Structures are given as structure tokens and as C-alpha cells.
Amino acid sequence: MTPIQQFKRQLAAQQLLDPEVTVIVAVSTGVDSMALLTLLEQLPSQQRPQLIVAHVNHHLRAQSQTEAAYLTKYCQQHQLTLKLTDWPVRLHPKTGIEAAARQFRYTFFGQLITATQAAAVLTAHHANDQAETYLMKLARGGDLAQLVGIQAARPFYTGQLVRPLLTWSKGQLREYAQAQGVTWYEDATNADVELTRNRLRHRVVPELTQLNPAFLAHVASYEQQLQQLLMAQTEMIRGLLPTVTTQKKQLTVDAWQQLPSSWQLPVLQAWLTQGTDTQFSQLKLGPVAHWLQNSQLPTGRLPLNHDWQLTKATGLVAIQPLKKRVKKLRPVEKNMVDLNQWQKITATQVVGVFEQAALPTSQPFPLTDDDWPLQWRPWQANDLVQLKGGGHQKVRRILIDQKVPVAQRALVQVLVNAHDTVLWVVGHKFSYRQPTTATRTVFLALKHTELKGAHLKR
Ligand SMILES: Nc1ncnc2c1ncn2[C@@H]1O[C@H](COP(=O)(O)OP(=O)(O)OP(=O)(O)O)[C@@H](O)[C@H]1O
């Protein structure tokens, strides 16, 4: 299969080879994403999805302006819609700038996909990126599941995040771009990317490729095998869990002990993760398994972390909150919405309900008089959003699906109407509303103030 056929296959697998579908192409003006854009533009018209080009001008170096100007002109000439945003210097943190830039980028992509209802955001991650990620994780260590590299597709806000070039090497992308006469900008920051990645990029990957020219293809193959293995394991665990737990989700120690020993830790890990919404590394579960098996201690308690403990009695083990969690004790703080005013609702989010679109990414939203007053508040366990097809989805499920880290979930705010119905899970999902003659459109807008150096999940 030629690289172009592989590229098409990746798109077809996500149902994106379709002119009825809109995709957002993340273009940095580097060779990888310019090649991606060109590949998409060259698809036959009966297969080519509608393209929206997204670019973040990070204002990290003088060249940023030139790149944004080049892309603006390119999109005009190629009749492509461009969504460009700035990351102003005043918002740059003093440390962790790469991670903060990445967070800003993905938040922007998330807002765009939500606002445009596009099916996917495409980025130009390639086989060399994959190999570097792999080697970094190998060096760092952890559970096998954490070795999973850059995923070809994963849920992202209201659509998918798709990387259709993971089978292409950097060299192939460069050759393709050259052959197509594409202009691109070398990323000057690539020279000083974080030390570990830099060493891998410039020393380790070339060495390994010299050792075996098929090295990158082998990494891609391992990645696929690992994904399949983990999927098989997940399915197996799904089948095993009900055989070792009661209806009240307690673990039956005897049944668990009768599992083949190689399944005990994975099943224990899945049970704990489900019961606490917290990831536990298998590497740290040895003592827990030992405590479960210890027949000298038929009853007792074992703290798992600050929030959770296990209690054991009559051969059954239950997961219990260690103390009443602050979240539950605190009365829910609500903030009244001030129409046409920006309001700071978290340390990093400024939001507003406007009569006119305050930002290009503002979301039009139909409201009736009955909805007022609107309020901002933290999300709660029973909050739901309305879906287009008529159903509902739990806010909790949305945050899990969007892989919002547990620690950040508590910070998520929602916009509610006078009846406490959720209209917007800020930064994550809008509730569906059909406009009618009784509704008036307002625009919901979100911008970020200060950014932390958190490393986003790939
Ligand atoms: N300024 C930008 N504007 C739009 N898209 C971008 C920008 N920077 C990067 N991208 C997109 O992200 C892809 C990966 O870029 P890069 O390798 O620089 O990011 P990374 O931070 O290392 O990766 P990740 O975002 O997965 O952590 C690019 O090929 C491009 O599709």
C-alpha cells in the first residue's frame, strides 16, 4: 500500500472521506501540517471533506507573524476557510511554555470543533513523533497501558482527534512537500524542544533507524499490537468483573482469588478505577492484593489514598470514601450571569453571555424568557445535557469521555437556567436546543486568562 493509500485508509476508517463532512486541519505552517493540508486538498472532490484550517499564532518568536500572514494568504488563494487565533504574550507563563502553548492550542481546537460541529480535528503527527513518544515512555516507565503512544483517533470534545499521518515518516512528509512545491516554515523552536525529546529526535531515533531502516514501521506495528492487546484485556476484564463482585459492587475475595493469578491485578485495578474514578497503577497494587489475600486479617480497613479506603468483612471488600469529601460539604456557589459582561469563573476561564458574538468561537444559543436568570455553578453528579437526538448525557460521562483528568473535573463549571437545567458544560459541551419563534439567540463565549503548565494527553 502506498503512503497516500494509507493516508486515505486512515481517513476512511473515521468516515472522513466524505464531502458532506467538515474537518478542522491544525496547521502550524511546518512541513508536516503543510503536507497534511496539501494531501487533503488533493483528494478527489467526491472524497474530500470540507476543510477548515485552524492556526494558533503563539507569538513565541518574530517568525510567528510571518507564518500567520503566509497561511492567511495561502488560504485566500486556495479558497480555504481559516480560523486563526492569537496567544498574546501577556498570557504566556514564565515556565512550562511548551505545555501551556499546547493547552491553549487544544482548547482552541476544542472550541472550534464544538462551534462548527466539525467531525474531527486533524493534526500532522507522524511516525517519528510516535517513536519519540514511545521511547520517552519506555525510559520513564509505568503500566503497560501507559505505553500506548499517539492514538490514530480518539474522542475529542464533540468529535474526534485524528492523526492520519502516523504511518508517514518525517522524511516522507518532507519529500512529499518538496515534490508538491509546498512552502513551509522550519519551526525554530524545534531546535530547543525539551531536552529528552531533542536527544531522542536527533540522536536515538537516527541511530535506531540506522540499525534497522524499518525501525519506525516496527514502532507503528508495536503500537497497533499493544492497542489490540489492551482492547482484548479490557473486554476480558469486563467479562470477569461481574464474576468477582456483588450487586453492590463489593469484591468477593474468594472469587477474586480463584482467578488465574495473571488476571488478579488487572481485575483489581479495573474494580478500583471504576469504584473511585481514580487511576491506580498496577505497579502499586501489590500491597493491596497482599492485604486482600491475608487470611490473618479477615476484617479491617486499608487506606488507598487521601480520598478512598477499602473495608473488609465476611469475605467481602467495599470501596468507601475516606472522609466526607470537601466537594460534597461545600454549598454550591452560584454566580448570576451578567448579560454582555465577561465573568471570571475559574482561575483560567473567563466566560460571558452576549447579545452579539464576542469571539469568532462564540456559540449561538437559543433562550426563552423563561430561562432567565442564568447562573454559573460547579457541575454536580446528577447534571445532564440534552442531546440532539432527544436523549440526555451525564456531565460526568462527558468529562470521562473527554479524558478530563480527575483533579481537573472538580473545577468544571456549568451554565444553568432558572430551572437549574444545564445549558453549557463550560469548555466541554453545549446542551442541544432547537431554536423556535419564542427563542432569542445569545452567544456563549469562553476565553482563557492564565495558563498552567499542565501537559495535555496526546
Ligand atoms: N501553532 C499551531 N497551529 C495549529 N496547529 C498546530 C500548531 N502547532 C502544532 N499544531 C498541530 O499539532 C501538530 C503537532 O505539532 P507539535 O509536534 O509541534 O506539537 P507537540 O506539542 O509536540 O504535540 P502534541 O500537541 O501532541 O503534544 C502539528 O503537526 C499541527 O497539526
TrEMBL record:
CDD domains: TilS_N. It catalyses: cytidine(34) in tRNA(Ile2) + L-lysine + ATP = lysidine(34) in tRNA(Ile2) + AMP + diphosphate + H(+). Its EC number is 6.3.4.19. Pfam families: ATP_bind_3, TilS_C. The keyword Oxidoreductase does not apply. It is found in: Cytoplasm. Keywords: ATP-binding, Cytoplasm, Ligase, Nucleotide-binding, tRNA processing. Residues 374-443 form the Lysidine-tRNA(Ile) synthetase C-terminal domain. GO terms for molecular function: tRNA(Ile)-lysidine synthase activity. PANTHER family: TRNA(ILE)-LYSIDINE SYNTHASE-RELATED. HAMAP family: tRNA_Ile_lys_synt. Belongs to the tRNA(Ile)-lysidine synthase family. Ligates lysine onto the cytidine present at position 34 of the AUA codon-specific tRNA(Ile) that contains the anticodon CAU, in an ATP-dependent manner. Cytidine is converted to lysidine, thus changing the amino acid specificity of the tRNA from methionine to isoleucine. This is tRNA(Ile)-lysidine synthase. It comes from Lactiplantibacillus songbeiensis. The lineage of its organism: Bacteria, Bacillati, Bacillota, Bacilli, Lactobacillales.
